[in-house]
UniProtKB/TrEMBL annotation:
Stated name of the protein: GNAT family N-acetyltransferase
Gene3D superfamilies, sorted: 3.40.630.30
Keyword terms of this UniProt record: Transferase
Classification via InterPro entries: Acyl_CoA_acyltransferase, Gcn5-rel_NAT, GNAT_dom, GNAT_YJDJ
Alphabetical list of CDD domains matching this protein: NAT_SF
One family name in Pfam for this protein: Acetyltransf_CG
Domain N-acetyltransferase residue range list: 1-109, 21-107
A GO molecular-function annotation: acyltransferase activity, transferring groups other than amino-acyl groups
Keyword Transferase: yes
Length: 109
């Protein structure tokens, strides 16, 4: 994914077409549906790693697997870029604990 690229996200709602973008200027990954931003994963950058700060999903879209899809794509992007993460967001921490394939991305700090 480039700095403003779009990816398709898997979702528990098959009729919901999600896109995710990474905005390096705003330091946010954003999930959108039909052009509407419905979830964000805020991050910071320090010493060659991404610090994942907070995940927010619009209330009407909660419980549909959107946060998990957004987090998975963000972590895949981090891996593709050869970086590691420090997790400050409890939602991301829980996601990584449940999805061990991402544990190798964790950096101390």
């Amino acid at each position: 994914m480039d700095a403003h690229g779009t990816l398709d996200l898997p979702s528990e709602d098959s009729d919901l077409e999600l896109g995710v973008t990474r905005d390096d200027d705003a330091r946010v990954y954003a999930a959108t549906v039909e052009g509407r931003r419905i979830a964000t994963l805020q991050y910071d950058v320090a010493e060659g790693r991404i610090i994942l700060l907070s995940t927010v999903v619009v209330p009407d879209f909660r419980g549909r697997g959107i946060a998990g899809g957004l987090i998975a794509d963000a972590l895949d992007d981090v891996r593709d870029r050869g970086l590691r993460v420090t997790v400050r967001c409890p939602v991301v921490a829980a996601f990584i604990a449940e999805n061990g394939q991402y544990a190798d991305l964790l950096a101390p700090g």
